[in-house]
Amino acid sequence: GIQVEQSPPDLILQEGANSTLRCNFSDSVNNLQWFHQNPWGQLINLFYIPSGTKQNGRLSATTVATERYSLLYISSSQTTDSGVYFCAPLPGRRALTFGSGTRLQVQP
Amino acid sequence: GAVVSQHPSRVICKSGTSVKIECRSLDFQATTMFWYRQFPKQSLMLMATSNEGSKATYEQGVEKDKFLINHASLTLSTLTVTSAHPEDSSFYICSATRSAMNTEAFFGQGTRLTVV
Lengths: 108, 116
Prior knowledge:
The complex is a heterodimer of chains A (108) and B (116). By secondary structure, chain A is mostly beta strands. Chain A has strands at residues 4-7, 10-14, 19-25, 31-37, 43-48, 52-56, 59-64, 69-74, 83-90, 102-107.
């Protein structure tokens, strides 16, 4: 099956800093989603992005499907951004495959 | 976005008993629902894919007789953990998609199961 690698595994930022999270995947995909898992376990949809670039407030994402990677940018980070960020590509089958996640801690 | 509701959010049960978890799509009809399992500090692992009106497709290594999945309608899928044991303690989370053309997945709040 598809292999999904996320980096870095852990990230500590000071409030206000910017960061880039990366997701590499091994096969062609029909789509890709980014999620933020909050401390209570809820998965929050951030982006549904098969290719190109999307922006939503302080967050933006870019997927280059031909090169099999996606990036999530967080600007002006806030403490509420803390949590785990998952990348989940959708290969030929209709089930998302999750990466191992990036655990982000934003310190005040 | 679409809303998926999962119930209960937390359950504690005795070893040997069964537990049912419900996953509902509240504002759309979900042709397909998925069940995932997550152990502490790990990623989400797909357990099974559930299509309305048909048998679920289980991932390799997932016991279909232990994890019973029923997708009785376009808005409801249930996961029953039968004869639960402490090693079944985990976070179970469902997701739903609208159609084969619209594959954006929306997740429920998750259920934290503790078997004592």
